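Structure record:
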Amino acid sequence: MTACAIETTAEDGDHEGTAVSPPAGFAITANGAYAARLAGSGDALYAERWTLDGPEPYAVPLPLDQPEEPDAQLLPLADGRVLVCRRVDGRRHTFSLLYPTGPGTGELRLGSVEAPGPGPVELLPPSPDGICAYARHIGPESTTLWLVAGGAFGPERVAELPGRCAGGVWLDRTGRILALDRRLGDGPVKTVAVDLERGGEVSPLLQITEASDDRLLLADPDSGLLLIRSDAPSPGHERLGWGVLGSLLPVRFPDCLRLDDAAVTPFAVQPGQVLMPESCGVALRIDAAAGSWVGLWRPSGRRMHQVAAPPGWVAGAGAWSPEGVLRLPCSTQELPCALAGLSVPEEPGPVPEEPGPEPGPGPEGHAGDGDGDARPRACRPVPLQQAPLTDRKPAG
């Protein structure tokens, strides 16, 4: 297969080609080297692994004697194997590792877990270490976490947390600290940090106001950039904002990330920008009645650049290179396995002005800046809390 390198700008284009809609999600390893999805159609579904770190992407089918069910969940590992989670009855879920073996597919069965209640066991996003894989089950009053791959003796329960925990964002590069959005009883949703190496110890992470629903959507361990959804600035109406892990600055909710007739969801953050969170490229999925397209934005910028989705984009999937190129997986009948490359357009520089009088105090006693502050507006001066990595005390 040949790679599909596409460069578009904010106002480009018509969608060409016939998109192939996958029956299930598309997961990418934390290092961007591999991806996995369900391929096929109807009653003939099978796992498919994509290799993304070579000169051009290519797909390897991993079919077995029996087709996969539409609700099978896939997770790629850094060694190229693909974890599959299958629901075999109302409570039991089985886990296997799939890998190519010449013309066939090898399968290593890892075991199963029993999940009480009607809810499914859900795989968490790929661990940054690329070796371990975790799953979550939300019960009526507690949430259970399992290590389902990478352990010594098959699936093992690693933590049971009070409350109903959703989401799942990794806060470090080792796969130790996991952020979850937790609701206790009828209270608000608050993001907590879970230490998986200390029996699931819980520390508060995100609390903008006492009554607000605060959820963590994405995090970049290199820069500390956090993408947050909260109703703190407008109770009852969630807004998309950003903050920095460990910073005392307030969470900001830029107006440019708010669209009246579309939902905006971040799905990838540029890595490698150490101590420079405002320079990170952020990719956003924009969904509206007309379809889905891509938003490109940096916290230092004043605007979100809206870009036509490349043909056959697997909507909501993509990964940044450290150099700032967003790679979007695409699948059409003509190119079943391809990548499209996008970059954040450069912001125009300030227009030079003739010298004038010095600015006076602004409305809040600070010096005005003439054309407005380039930083996104803050909701209120409530600091973002950081989960300490040592001397934690359980907050269950």
